[in-house]
Amino acid sequence: MTGAGDAYHQGVVGDSYPAGAGWVVAAHGELDQDTLAPLEEALATAADRHGLVVLDAGSITFGDSSFLNLLLRLHHLTTLRIAAPGEQLRRLFALTGADTVLSLHPSVEDALGGP
Predict the structure, then answer these.
(1) What pLDDT sits at residue 10?
(2) CA distance from start to end of the chain
(3) CA nearest 92: which of 25, 38, 31, 14?
(4) What is the mean predicted confidence (pLDDT) over 22-40?
(5) What pLDDT does residue 2 have?
(6) Above 50 in pLDDT, residue 110?
(7) DSSP 21-76
(8) How far apart are CA 77 and CA 44, in angstroms?
(9) Do 35 and 12 contact (CB within 8 A), yes or no?
(10) Which of 8, 26, 68, 108 has a CB 3.0–4.6 Å from the CB of 42, allowing a cystine?
(11) Looking at residue 107, what DSSP letter applies?
């Protein structure tokens, strides 16, 4: 999961890299049922290998219910922290109550160091 040629690094998935005790997966663009598969694969692989997974959500412009469902499922498999969610994602999390379940952080650095 470390090379730009990996299958995970296409479409909505950006860089994935080790950081501290965890693994960071960056995503970008619009995440819905039609675009979610590469991110789901990258996050599931990270969750299988690491006890802490940080999703760098700073470049995600849209997430729908399928994206939210993925995050909630992953939350049960590993320690998942969401870093730098934008306004649309914060609104999605607040409207659904997911902000009381998911661990949201202002930056990747905060997510790596936070509870």
Answers:
(1) 53
(2) 25
(3) 31
(4) 95
(5) 39
(6) yes
(7) TEEEEEEEEEESTTT-HHHHHHHHHHHHH-SEEEEEEEEEEEE-HHHHHHHHHHHT
(8) 9
(9) yes
(10) 8
(11) S
